[in-house]
Amino acid sequence: MRYSNATNYALHTVVHLMLQPDGSSVGVQELAEMQQLSPTYLSKVLTKLRKAGLIESTPGAKGGYKISRTKHEISFLDVIHAIEGDTSLFDCTIHHEGCMIENTMRQAEENMKAELASKLLVDIAKEAESKQKEES
Q: Which Gene3D superfamilies does its entry note (predicted)?
């Protein structure tokens, strides 16, 4: 199982935005440079995050992106769903009632979703902030 690169960039972007002072925005150029991406590519990722209600954008020269929810409300799963969607990872091609393989795969997926839903990105942001202070 593998998530797309867009999910990787989205997770890093949201954590970076969480590290900003409350109310401040970060431009797409800065976000793209931080991850060594083209602003055009990252804009597509940012659009999905915005449509999911995780971030908001402010147009103009002093505009940019910022977190639109309370930081303690955004989980890993929220960002993953914003980028990847909420489709099942496994689709049994042999349709018969009580398929043990399908049941096992769905249970494993539910366990993974529960774990990712319980992990908040703000915890990662706090850890990153602590490391930055130690290095200073």
A: Winged helix-like DNA-binding domain superfamily/Winged helix DNA-binding domain (1.10.10.10)
